[in-house]
Amino acid sequence: MRTKFFTGKGDAGESDVDGRKISKLNPAVQFLGALDELNSWVGFVKAGAKLFVKTGKIEVAAELHQIQESLFVIQAETAKNAFGYEKGPVLGEEKVKELEALIAVIDAELPPLKKFVIPGGSELSARLDLARAMARRTERNAKEYGEKDGVVLSPVIFQYLNRLSSVLFALARYANYMLGEKEEHPKYYH
User: Fold this and answer.
1) pTM of the shown model
2) Is 15 in contact with 29 (CB distance < 8 Å)?
3) Which of 15, 41, 181, 185 is the most exposed place for a label (fewest CB within 10 A)?
């Protein structure tokens, strides 16, 4: 059997979910789309991170892969809640703790942060900064989904997305530090 890459069922701006038509503007669909976009971008960053020479304690590509695994669980948990599926994975609090532990390890490797940092430096850092901004947007989509649809999302999802943006920022700083790229700060600090 060949893979079917399209069904044509979404051509009118609606998704077909188990025979139900749901607008692509539905907050759940928007949140799922933001998660998909973020996960795809993290995959792009991971591809570049594989070229990153591991000279410190952090294996960036491996950490990004673990993040992707968690994002898939959040997608599945959201779809389960949004569309009434009976079974599906649930993101556990240990995933938030893992991000917090990673932040602590990265923080121990870096000089203290005293000013805002202009995104960029190395290509890897710039990609990580964009992933951080996408994670923040995804977090806002989660909040909007909960408020508009009156759904109670697991607090673990919000905690994970919040820590995720912090991890991605820390990894961006780490990449520049390990590559010898000097951090730049906005001029209004001078």
Assistant:
1) 0.89
2) yes
3) 185
